[in-house]
Amino acid sequence: MLWDAFPSALDLARFQFAFTVTFHFLFPAFTIGLASYLAVLEGLWLWTKREIYLDIFRYWLKVFAVNFAMGVVSGIVLSYQFGTNWSVFADRTGPVLGPLLGYEVLTAFFLEAGFLGVMLFGLERVGRRLHFTATVLVAIGTLISGFWILSANSWMQTPTGHSIGPDGRFLPEDWWAIIFNPSFPFRYLHTITGAFLTTAMIVGAVGAFHVLRNGANARARIMFSMAMWMAAAVAPAQAVFGDLQGLWALHYQPQKVAAMEGHWETYRGAPLILFGMPDMEREETRLALQIPHLGSLILRHEWDGEILGLKAFPRDARPTNVPLVFWSFRIMVAVGLLMIALGLVSLWLRWRGTLYRREWFLRWAVAMGPSGLIAVTFGWITTETGRQPFTVYGLMRTAESVSPIAAPAVLTSLAMFVVVYFVVFGAGIWYLFRLFRHPPEAHESGPPRGEPIRTAGITPAPSVDPRAVPAAAQSAAPGE
Amino acid sequence: MSAETIATVWALLIATAVFLYVCLDGFDLGVGILFPWIHGREDRDISVNTTAPVWDGNETWLVLGGAGLFAVFPLAYATIMPALYMPIIIMLLALIFRGVAFEMRFRTETLKQTMWWDRSFSGGSYVATFAQGIALGALVQGIEVEERAYAGGWWDWLSPFSVLTGVALLAGYGLLGACWLVWKTEGELQDQVRALARRLGVLTLLFIAAVSLIMPFLQPGFRARWFDFPLILLALPVPVLVVFLAWRMFRALEESGHAARARTEPVPPRQVLWRDGLPFLCALGLFFLSYTGLGISMWPMMVPPEITIWDAAAPRSTQLFMLVGAAVLIPIILAYTGYVYWLFRGKVQAGQGYH
Questions:
Q1: How many domains does the structure of chain A reveal?
Q2: Domain containing residue A402
Q3: Roughly what angle, to the nearest 10 degrees, separates helices B74-83 and B111-141?
Q4: What is the DSSP code (8-state) at residue A107?
Q5: Of A93, A405, A447, which has the smallest distance from its Cβ to B82's Cβ?
Q6: Please, which residues 136-175 of chain B have a Cβ atom closer than 8 Å to chain A?
């Protein structure tokens, strides 16, 4: 029958949330790092008085504006989706999770939105000092926003500080314990670092692309160099944070770690499975390529440490899609290792004085452009699918969280989301690529500066208002 | 404070957040609604630039409304959202078109691209407004709830009344947008939006009257509120004030027109507020009164016909924790939001933007 093949409302709601949240997070993953990068650039401009930093600032500000808008509008969807698609979850967890999201709005969203206007429009209205303050406030806003959303998500992973009422509602008992739940600190650090690396990879790729086209472009060289410093310093640190996060996960969510590792049996001195095919029917990982004892060494920091396998847990408390958890985790780690390699090689080349001249390295950096976004996405897939079959780990099941909405309604809205996201964000992302293709130049257009806006005779027209010259003339501008 | 008192305070706070959203994003969306009547690239750019620095902050009040409801009235959030499933999702999607168009329409390279982003901006504004109006009408009509969950179907929101409120909100936001542009623009564009404001003012008043006449017959509780003595004494000033404000708004529009014809040189911002800004303030007043009227009808229901404010309230600990933050942060937010508006005060001129 056709209806038997029709996915359930629950599966559709899950897919819809996965789709909207994954798409959304691409934007903040870039925004968080870029906001801080912009603050650094503007700070360098004010400190060194070198116009070159202002040019780079303006170059990325245009990217930031578009990316931020896409992050905002795709994020609003999520704040309503808890109610539309997960109303039982909303009713029962609202007393605990609601305030965390409420505080995110009050402490971060208003701050970002309020000062973004000043940042984009106001340099000539408010003066340099205040404009810099606005830039810094927007950057701080992105970090605060991450704080609350990670706190909420971490509470779902490691719920503490609450009691459960007779009607099944979660009731707050200790706000400190709720906000700073056990998994929160490292997950926050891991996510923010991931966002910084994401930005470094994109900025580095754009810089490398333009160094390849014109090795003398000083602005492209600076952004490339800054990004490579970031990769060299932060990518190895990220590996340490990831390891720390693995340690707590083993303690609080052993099933998730077992799925990530592809372990079905409980071992002392567990191997590290590099690749394999987790088979949920046969409850084993086939074709496993493994290194003895390394699993225990990494997770327990002991040669013979005990690691629980999936079979140690009842079937209905294991992650529902083990291969997805297993593979997502490997993709994240592999991409992370590539970033570390990129950073280390950049140090070597820098020491040899050939950072801007090795074409293979520049090409590699260009290819790494989306790597941060890939790692962040698959990291989230690992942690979220690894939490299944629960929404609140161990306490509330995904199946009992869903709204009483008929499958056709969920399917209709899902179809609309898919179409709209691909059309609108597709156009936005396409535009970002056009911006990237444009080399960073002297007198980069951006927010108008101190000069009166219409003195086109003093400032070159394109730097004041790109609309003042036809598109054809613009693309023939110097530097192309 | 007892749990009941805190819940009441919160109901007023959420109502305020939603009202601020309606006022602030109302004029943003209104600008989009007026787009079909604003021709020419320059006039459209000016219109969008009047709201471009502030739209994001304006829309944040909608997020606060959603997140606030989730936090302090989770039961209301968990029943209203599924009941209004389609209008809410369509509104969110429309806001995506509108929001991205804000950034993108300035960055196009061909006229055809501009045309598409203009359509996305205007179409998004229409659909989002209509969906909000439908959501309002459907909520007022009542939502079927059983055992803490929505018990109706996925088309229950569609009714003649909800369509009426949807269209009414289009007229209302259009009026806000037109009055906003009267305040923030000058010259021919201002003359044009002033004429639109007059027409939309008449339309809005007709819709206010229609909705007010139908409202008492939707729920017995509403009827008692408006026709029983002594409650009528409380409710009576509302329609009287509506008439007064409407009269003041039309007069202010006339005066602004006279002043514009007599004007030879640019006026300082302070004078602008009291002459060209007055119609906008009156329109906000009309919104406030209509909103108060709705509030009087619905009180103390949060999800008519059964869930009251106190039924829907989160535990005291949650409400108090949020209230401490709101008491400290909302004044700060209002202060810097006000500062940003002040920063961008005065008339917006051609070529004045950042793109």
A1: 1
A2: 8-253+327-449
A3: 120
A4: I
A5: A405
A6: 148-151, 153-154
CA atoms of B7 and A477, how far apart (whole Å): 61
Where do we find the tokens 């209203």? B80
The three-class DSSP label of residue A391 is: strand
Terminal Cα-to-Cα distance of chain B (whole angstroms): 51
B322 in contact with A at a CB cutoff of 8 Å?
yes
Quick: pLDDT tens for B176-190: 999 999 998 888 899
> Is residue A119 one of the residues assigned to a domain?
yes
Q: How far is CA B264 from CA A304, B193, B259, B267, B352, in A?
A: 89, 20, 10, 9, 21
Interface contact B54, partner A, CB < 8 A: yes
∠ CA A320-A325-A326, nearest 5°, is 120
Distance from C-alpha of B234 to C-alpha of B236, rounded to nearest angstrom: 6
Q: What is the pLDDT of residues A129-159, one digit of tens each?
A: 889 999 999 999 999 999 999 999 999 999 9
Shortest Cα distance from B269 to chain A (angstroms)?
Answer: 15
Entry field: residues in chain A: 480
Residues 6+ apart with CB under 8 A from B296: B225, B226, B234, B235, B238
**Model confidence pLDDT, tens digit, residues A183-231:** 899 899 999 999 999 999 999 999 999 999 988 888 999 999 999 999 9
With an 8 Å Cβ cutoff, is B326 touching chain A? yes
The alpha-carbon gap from B228 to the nearest alpha carbon of chain A, in Å, equals 36
Q: What is the mean pLDDT of residues A86-90?
A: 91
Backbone angles phi, psi at B291, to 5 degrees: -65, -40
Quick check: pTM over 0.90? no
A303 within a domain of the structure (yes/no): no
B67 close to A (CB below 8 A): yes
Rg (CA), chain A: 24
Q: In 3D, which of A150, A391, A97 has the Cα closest to residue B318?
A: A97
Q: Does B6 touch chain A (CB under 8 A)?
A: no
Distance of alpha carbon B24 from alpha carbon B29, whole angstroms: 9
Residue A62 in any domain: the answer is yes
- Mutation pick from A77, A121, A455 vs chain B, by most beta carbons of B within 10 Å, is A121
Q: What is the per-residue pLDDT across A402-456, written as a single tens digit (0 to 9) for each?
A: 888 888 888 999 999 999 989 888 888 988 998 899 888 887 765 433 333 332 2
The label of the residue with tokens 């990831």 reads A242
Q: How confident is the model at residue A2 (pLDDT cuts 50, 70, 90)?
A: low
If one counts every other C-beta atom within 10 angstroms of the C-beta of residue A290, the result is 17
* Nearest to A45, CA basis, from A32, A33, A57, A31: A57
Chain B residues lying within 8 Å of A23, measured CB to CB: none
> In angstroms, rounded to a whole number, what is the distance separating the alpha carbons of residues A363 and A360?
5
Whether the complex's predicted ipTM surpasses the cut of 0.90: no
To the nearest 10 degrees (0 to 180), the angle between helices B237-262 and B160-184 is 40
Three-class DSSP labels, B171-218:
HHHHHHHHHHHHHHCCHHHHHHHHHHHHHHHHHHHHHHHHHHHHHHHC
In a domain, residue A392? The reply is yes
Angular region, A479: left φ>0, alpha ψ -120 to 50, beta rest: left
B78, B102, B154 member nearest A406 (Cβ):
B154
Residue among B54, B74, B150 minimizing CB distance to A404: B150
B103 interface with A at CB cutoff 8 Å: yes
Compare A199 and A317 and report the one with higher pLDDT.
Answer: A199
d(CA A252, CA B168): 53
Name which of B74, B95, B150 is nearest A94 (Cβ-Cβ). Answer: B74
> Which one, of B345, B211, B328, B213, lies nearest residue B276 by Cα?
B345
Tell me, what amino acid is at A388? Q
